[in-house]
Design a protein that fits this description.
The protein is built from 17 helices and three strands. By secondary structure, it is mainly alpha-helical. It has a three-stranded mixed beta sheet. A hairpin with a 5-residue loop joins strand 2 and strand 3. The chain is elongated and about 100 Å long.
Length: 340
């Protein structure tokens, strides 16, 4: 019931929000002016191919926003369908309609639900025929009973059950709440979940910069800082200034072993001071020259100088460090031989 969460959802700011991240989900929440949990439950059921193709999603939205009068197929169904503005959205509503109008027991109503859901044509005809006749016997006009039977059959092509939709919606709300109140942490976690998918990383970084200013601590979007060998972790992280720091694991061309080598070299607590210091302290077997070039191109070594200069000096620095390592190894070998 947090108004800030629904303000964000009603504006279509759904990137990273479970089940509503798509353009379609965003548009429908914005169209219905989503401002309550019930809208999320209905929305989860309505942004499916069936209701979209049948037009039921738009009927719900028009009635929800007062553009169309709410009507009920039968007066006795007002309580059952009031939450969804007279539109059959859930399987449970189908069962209750059969129970109220045709006197079906809930177990009989469940047989009808299963028949429609499984698209068993023979069983559907049998169960819906039974529904119509029993409803008429209870005083429901045949025309109304037959129209409801048609709606139920159509509904069966896409029917969601409310309990499933409610469970989805709780996750939708949780992710939206985290985004609304902890945008930096949320987006860092979201970016970390797609480390190996470059297109998604690019998309979410753009989303960070476009986050609405009304979210806590944001004046004009969320800044994403470039990777930094002295600051970045494997995943995306949040700085003390509430910025997102690019994760080394998302830099293309740099593998797990290379990143582990960098993080291990930083365990002493001493920052890398130069390109030479960086190369001297890491494991060059884990971080080859091509990976170094990828780090430079990504901006991870910007604190050591301009990228063009670093690339120009990389061959010399890399070769010098390799030579020193080889000499050190050779010296150790001679020492052991003498001692032997």
């Amino acid at each position: 019931d947090d108004p800030e969460v629904y303000e964000m959802l009603a504006k279509g700011e759904t990137s990273g929000v479970f089940q509503f991240e798509s353009r379609l989900g965003s548009e429908k929440l914005r169209a219905m002016s989503c401002d309550r949990f019930e809208d999320l439950i209905a929305g989860n059921g309505l942004i499916r191919p069936g209701p979209l193709d049948s037009g039921m999603t738009d009927v719900y939205i028009r009635r929800r926003t007062g553009q169309e009068e709410v009507r009920y197929p039968h007066p006795d169904l007002e309580k059952t369908l009031s939450a969804t503005y007279g539109v059959i959205v859930y399987q449970e509503q189908v069962m209750r309609i059969a129970n109220l109008l045709a006197g079906f027991s809930l177990s009989e109503a469940d047989v009808l639900r299963k028949a429609v859901g499984k698209k068993n044509a023979k069983l559907i005809r049998s169960e819906l025929g039974k529904f119509v006749e029993r409803a008429v016997e209870r005083g429901v006009a045949r025309r109304v009973a037959e129209q409801l039977a048609e709606q139920i059959e159509t509904f069966g092509r896409y029917g969601f059950n409310r309990s499933h939709s409610a469970a989805y919606s709780l996750l939708s709300y949780h992710t939206a709440w985290l985004k609304a109140h902890y945008p930096a942490e949320f987006m860092a976690a979201l970016l970390s979940s797609v480390l190996d998918k470059t297109d998604d990383v690019v998309k979410y970084i753009a989303e960070c910069r476009e986050l609405p200013h009304y979210l806590p601590g944001l004046d004009q979007g969320l800044e994403v800082l470039p990777p930094d060998v002295n600051e970045s972790d494997w995943k995306f992280s949040v700085t003390e200034e509430r910025q997102v720091r690019f994760g080394l694991g998302a830099v293309r061309g740099v593998g797990t072993g290379a990143v582990q080598s960098i993080l291990k070299a930083r365990e002493s607590g001493q920052s890398f001071s130069s390109l030479f210091d960086f190369l001297d302290r890491i494991d060059l077997h884990a971080l080859n020259k091509r990976a170094c070039e990828a780090l430079i191109a990504a901006g991870a070594l910007d604190s050591f100088g301009h990228r063009a200069q670093l690339l120009a000096g990389l061959d010399i620095a890399y070769s010098e460090v390799q030579t020193r390592e080889a000499e050190a190894a050779a010296g150790q070998g001679s020492l052991f031989e003498t001692d032997g």
